[in-house]
Specification:
The protein has 111 residues and is mainly β. The chain has one helix and six strands, in the order ββαββββ. A six-stranded antiparallel barrel has the order 1-2-3-6-5-4. A hairpin with a 5-residue loop joins β1 (11-23) and β2 (29-44). It is globular, with a radius of gyration of 16 Å.
Length: 111
């Protein structure tokens, strides 16, 4: 995707993984988020057909963001955006020069 204005990239998103953290007061290891890199991102609106497709797959609590193309954005990463943790469920990449990726995120469900 090439037709996205850079001025719309106003938010900061952290991409990373969970790692084993410190031990809590009950003697259990607590997993914590460790950011690998941070990028600017912007919101992306899905079309009606894309929204219906996601509903048919029982995928809820999703949002799409646009970032500058990066090869290291993969589905195994987690994203922290606006103090919410998300899983990456899809990345639509464009390998050209000065292109953008559309990343579909799903909110991580709590225990």
């Amino acid at each position: 995707m090439k037709n996205y204005k850079l001025s719309r990239l106003k938010r900061r998103a952290e991409f990373g993984n969970t790692v084993s953290g410190s031990t809590n007061s009950f003697g259990q290891k607590v997993n914590v988020f460790k950011a690998d890199f941070t990028v600017y991102c912007g919101d992306y609106t899905t079309s009606m057909s894309q929204a219906i497709t996601l509903q048919g797959l029982n995928i809820t609590d999703t949002r799409e963001i646009v970032i500058r193309h990066r090869d290291d954005v993969i589905n195994e990463k987690l994203v922290h955006l606006d103090n919410v943790e998300y899983n990456i469920i899809n990345v639509v990449s464009d390998d050209g020069i000065n292109t953008f990726d559309i990343v579909t995120l799903q909110k991580v469900k709590g225990i």
